[in-house]
């Protein structure tokens, strides 16, 4: 029997990562944070001095990327390892995020990461979050969610997250970054950010994380 998949796609700051993580724990299913793969690739490229414009070298790097996702334990979210080093926090920086968005624009990189993403599909099931989970990577998913939030709200959330660790950051510059990244992610020719035709759209500007999770669990119950 092939494992069922729930996909959660949307822009960064929509809350999809948190929702996906909570949902996977609630259901006891596996979790794929696909954005982390692009972030890991960008970080590895930076560590090895590989130019983000070099599609062929990035493809090779993506094929051989030495990464590990250690499952969440109790209240801790999953730990992410690159070449044996814990990079869980490092990959969340604005710098790595911007690099991720650049490497993600290369078709050869996306197809190199496809098999790796399919490998996460194991029983009893998978919750996958990203930009193209429902459209490209798992088009046969049993439930597809597209989670949005206004750019202003996403900038505000990011600001609250970052202000402790990064005192230089301003709300205005974050809003600017978010708009640029949205434009790059929605306008690229390969796997642009857009809802699958059969996706359920939820807006977390007006819904709390608990409410979003509740709505998704209702949909899961209907399908069971
Ligand atoms: O979701 P997250 O912010 O971690 O993703 C980082 C970057 O990786 C995004 O800006 C996007 O360009 C890229 N990405 C993607 N496809 C995915 C997940 C992430 O292109 N499925």
Automatic annotation (TrEMBL):
Biological processes annotated in GO? pyrimidine nucleotide metabolic process
Q: Does the keyword Repressor apply?
A: no
- Any one GO cellular component localisation term in the record: cytoplasm
Q: Main location per UniProt? A: cytoplasm
Coiled-coil segments on the chain, per record: none
Domain Cytidylate kinase: where? 6-220
Q: Could you say which residues bind ATP here?
A: 10-18
Mind telling me which HAMAP family this protein's record contains?
A: Cytidyl_kinase_type1
This one is known as Cytidylate kinase
Origin organism is: Azomonas macrocytogenes
Q: Which gene encodes it?
A: cmk
